[in-house]
Design a protein that fits this description.
Elements lengths: L1 H22 L1 E9 L10 E4 L4 E4 L5 E8 L1 E8 L6 E7 L4 E7 L28 E4 L3 H4 L7 H5 L5 E2 L9 E2 L7 E5 L2 E2 L4 E2 L4 E2 L6 E7 L13 E7 L10 E6 L3 E9 L5 E10 L1 H12 L6 E15 L5 E18 L8 E22 L2 E22 L1 H5 L9 H13 L8 E23 L5 E23 L6
Parallel strand pairs: 1-7, 11-16
Antiparallel strand pairs: 1-4, 2-3, 2-5, 5-6, 8-15, 9-10, 11-12, 13-14, 15-16, 17-18, 18-19, 19-20, 20-21, 21-22, 22-23, 23-24, 24-25
């Protein structure tokens, strides 16, 4: 009995001493951004007085734990940016937060001859076939057309079905075997203009990760590759509003962002639309190339992201994506005859998601997400024809005069009141939607080992409809 009491006393004393020792230390965490509010990866954060430091993660965040209470000088540096130094005071048992914006600087150097290079990766990342792409490459890489997918096609083992497609063919597999994620929301059809470009906005992306094989079990239902794209949080610096306008070869892009005035959080809103159709359409109609209404292939989309930090260790995120692709063509409505043809093709992408991230300690992170995605569309086509034959001079047509007169008499006796020989009309529609509830947990066992586990439930719906009506009015001929 005395031995058990002694053991209990020792255990309680050890816990109290550990708690007391933990309370004597502080924690410093924060994020590093550039002037465009994009996270800086690999920035060095140092506390020279105690010889402690770390580097920023892929989202620009960092953390240094077990810091003795006191005042310290913090030195932050990154390649291509001016160094930054500040002073912070940390209190035992509390967390001090730091948010820094680094200014870009030019680096003068002598000519360098590069004979070989390879993409570097953190040594702690043991996943196979993982490629991380800087979002800035989608804007500045030659031939990328400011598009994420076309930038990825420059990587080894990644290609496209043709020069006119942005779809990804990874190691010979089909594009439909790629899992595409935007802020952990699966996108079934992430393309614009019939696959010419992708729906991702290069101005709002914070990270691009491509897994070309051996991906974990959390990425399900695909065999080829996984593309995980994350949008950045809105600007949380000085002021509540910032904006940018970008015009590329295919579209105009407006980005607005800022801090929430009444909550600890940020918002990011972007909108894109093609503009060439607004310019070319009137010109084509004015030159007489078409005599009806025409809308060249065009798209427009809207993306919204809200981020809230309601309490320490809690993060709430809401995402909204809605877009439309449209093509319309009508020919012949202004002719004296009734011959005409019309084509309408529209498709939509809608995605909504809410996520909650809970970090009770620096070794455990829990993520709960609910998302809804729908890809649907409809197209219709129709036309009438044959009026040129019915209204032409019988002596100049391919039919004999007797056959021509017999054709007209037969149609009149049948009660046909329009001068056409046939009409056709067809409509098709499709819909795919997916609702997902997902729980992911990460438990950092030690500096080299972590345990990831979770559960996911999906609800799917697919539907296809088709309608075709062909009316051959030659049935009245005797």
């Amino acid at each position: 009995m005395n031995t058990m009491r002694l053991a209990s006393l020792v255990a309680i004393t050890t816990l109290l001493l550990a708690a007391t020792a933990h309370a004597q230390f502080a924690r410093l965490e924060g994020a590093i951004y550039d002037s465009e509010r994009s996270p800086i990866v690999g920035a060095t954060i140092k506390l020279p007085q105690i010889k402690r430091g770390t580097v920023s993660r892929s989202d620009g965040t960092f953390a240094i734990a077990n810091i003795p209470a006191g005042t310290y000088r913090v030195e932050i540096s990154a390649i291509g940016y001016d160094p930054y130094t500040t002073t912070v005071t940390v209190t035992a048992g509390k967390t001090e937060r730091l948010r820094v914006v680094l200014r870009q600087s030019s680096i003068e150097a002598e000519a360098v001859e590069v004979t070989a290079s390879r993409r570097m990766q953190e040594q702690t990342d043991t996943r196979t076939s993982v490629v991380t792409v800087d979002p800035r490459e989608a804007k500045y890489k030659a031939g990328g057309i400011e598009d994420v997918f076309r930038t990825l096609q420059n990587l080894p083992g990644v290609t496209a079905p043709s020069d006119f497609s942005s779809q990804l063919v990874v190691r010979g597999s089909g594009p439909d075997q790629n899992l595409i994620l935007l802020d952990n929301i699966e996108l079934f059809n992430p393309y614009r203009l019939y696959g010419f470009i992708s729906l991702f906005n290069p101005e709002t992306i914070s990270s691009i990760t491509l897994l070309t094989g051996g991906f974990p079990a959390q990425y399900t239902d695909r065999l080829s590759a996984v593309l995980d794209v994350r949008n950045r949080d809105g600007y949380t610096g000085n002021g509540y509003f910032a904006g940018k306008l970008n015009v590329s070869i295919t579209n105009a892009n407006v980005i607005t962002e800022g801090a929430l005035p009444f909550w600890n959080g940020a918002w990011l809103l972007s909108s894109r639309r093609t503009y060439y159709d607004l310019i070319v359409g009137p010109i084509v109609r004015a030159t007489g190339a078409v005599d009806g209404d025409v809308a060249f292939p065009n798209f427009r989309d809207l993306q919204l992201k809200l981020t809230l930090f309601p309490a320490q260790g809690h993060k709430l995120t809401a995402n909204v994506l809605t877009s439309r692709d449209n093509t319309e063509f009508t020919s012949g409505v202004n002719r004296q005859s009734a011959d005409s043809i019309s084509l309408i093709d529209r498709s939509y992408n809608d995605a909504y998601g809410i996520a909650w991230q809970w970090t009770p300690s620096q070794r455990f992170v829990a993520n709960v997400g609910l998302s809804y995605y729908a890809n649907y569309g409809a197209n219709s086509f129709g036309g009438v024809g044959g009026s040129a034959l019915l209204n032409s001079n019988p002596n100049g047509g391919t039919l004999s005069k007797a056959d021509f007169e017999r054709l007209q008499d037969s149609l009149r006796q049948a009660g046909v009141d329009v001068p056409t020989l046939f009409s056709a009309r067809g409509e098709t529609g499709f819909r795919f939607q997916k609702t997902s509830l997902k729980v992911d947990n990460i438990w950092q066992l030690d500096s080299l080992h972590s345990l990831e586990f979770g559960v996911q439930q999906d609800w799917l719906y697919t539907g296809i409809v088709a309608y075709l009506d062909f009316d051959p009015r030659l049935k009245a001929i005797r």
